[in-house]
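Same chain as my last thread, 730 residues:
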Amino acid sequence: MSLKLDQSIDDALKLVNDHSGQGYFEALVTSLARLIQADYVLIGKIDLENHTAHSLALWCDGETSSHLSYPLEETPCDQVFSGGTCIYPRDIAELFPKDKMLADFGLQGYVGRSLKNHNGEPIGLLVALFKQPDVASENILSIFDLFAIRASVELERAQWESKLQEQIELLKTKNQQLDLSHTIFEHTNEGILLTDHLNNIITVNAAFEKLSGYSKTELIGKNPNILSSGLQSEQFYTELWGTLLKTGTWQGELWNRRKDGSTYPIWSSLSEVKNSQGVTTHFIASVKDTLVEKELQEQLYHQATHDYLTGLSNRFEFHQHAQKAVAQANRNQEHYALLRINIDNLNLVNASYGHETGDLLVQTIGQRLNQCLSRENDLLSRLGGDEFALLIGFKSNTNLQKHLKKISALFRQKIQTKENVFSPSCSVGISILGEDAHDLDTLLRNADKALRYAKENVRGSYSFYSTDFDQKVRRQDVLQDQLFHAIAKNQIEPYFQPIINLVDGSLSHCEALARWQDERLGRVAPDEFIPIAETTGLIQQLGKQIFSKATKAIHELNQKIDNPIGVTINRSPFEFSINEKTSYAEYSLNGLNSDQVSIEVTENLMIDSPNHAKRHLSLLKKQGFTLALDDFGTGYSSLSYLKLYPFDYLKVDQSFIRDMQPESDDFVLVKTIIQMAKNLGLKTIAEGIETEEQRLILIQLGCDYGQGYLFSKPIPKDEFEAFALKYVPA
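reply #2:
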């Protein structure tokens, strides 16, 4: 550097040093901007949790300006924060097209340096931006570094100052807590009496004054025996003091006398207070009116035995009364039916309309069920979040059917909220006392089995328990037990189905599908064991195992073929837990690049929790994975899924391909889906291709990829490797 420039730098730094706090940062950006002829200079601190920069000082167009905050993702500042230093002499807006500020301000050049604390940890950014190209260069980097060092030191000092201020505030809080303790003493509902070591009253609180009828002035200096009712014997007090002095505490009920002469029962807790040398200094008595306590106990019992939202008895209370009702019904040969009632899609209502609407739905169903209690011994309970139990007596099957029709009609009545009107839906499982069970526990289990059948087969209606249901449930129980052991032993394997490029006939990638061959049960279909894995939480571990095995197999295959392929791996909505970070960083890619792995999800993920799904899918996309939406068009699929979520592939369900003929409804539907995908920049994959005619039609419609039995069924790793090695494009 020239002597003149050195002097300018020294003068600039001296000017900066004349300031402190916010003025320091503003002087720094001003001096640096003038030295290097920058159009914009800013110092920013980093919010690591939200990956956002917040400017501490900003210089633009010749003056300091208001602060701003902006996300770091896909900006040059993100590279500075992760890499330390970045220089872009020109075309910065073209290099970072998603950073709109660069284009909006007509910027060309960029210099950035991360600010670090004394431990070398990044805590902020120093950035200069130029409207003219080639001003940002290595020549100014040394100047920039000098200012970055000064900024780092001041930023760290400011952070320590902030921590010191926090400590000061903590001390203020502790003082406030002492004041609060005094306030609590004066305002607590319990009467408190404090004596010295000779048992002379030092003070009492307002509650004690109210309870005893004496004022504080009348009690101070007196012995507490002036409160004695005379109803306890001298022996009682001798034992009381013996226990208090031996153990340091005493609790019990006794009678006191008010100033007006009336007696009253209290529950008293006495404590001996000693100093650090073990010498008794005070005694404390805390007293409560037992009549008030009794009312509180009754309130607590009601809260413990009843549902807070509906006011109905809870599971515990229902079980207590239902056992007695069942025992009496068995003795008197009375007819009873147990109904387990589940509100369909309560989670969806909560997600779509809010929990306030969900609570209203639960309350309304509870009120309507309460109208169905026609006999004295009928019982109704809310067992859990979306489930009720109803034990009703009936005289005949005709009478029971009448009850069920009334209940069904009540369910179907519309519910009016502040903003919406909707029709609730409930599924019901029914077990008959005497026919299906003779005790309450079995009656509950069988009604639950019937409910599970109703939800799977006649959702929105009711179903009676039968032995067929029991056999199905028993198999599910066996499957669950065996599935636990199979996953623990890593026995479930991926099968691979090739996905063919329909344009050139090449093997593009494959789909990994979980297959289970159990030594006891034989081959278990995925539609049996996957739902069990989802409901038991085993799906997380199963997903990791299939991911690891699939990526390893494809990496090994890619070492043997000329054109490497990718793999698509299905992911259940249940794998996207609320607390999970949806990152495959802990998964092993086994040598594959993340862009060779496609994560395939179904629309249920978006339906159940749309905002949650968007966050997690966006993070997977940022990590380099491609995303595929499966079964599009078979359920509630919406164009919004394709607009709002970052999918790369759209899979056309095989149900549309199976009967697809030229100019048929399926043909028009598939054509529309493919065209829509193209307009949105998505690739399409047709599932279930079984004939050459289907392949040719899909090529004509512009479909990109296809899979199905025409090419190969899902096959084990070794067979797929042999397929790939000998595969020749058609």
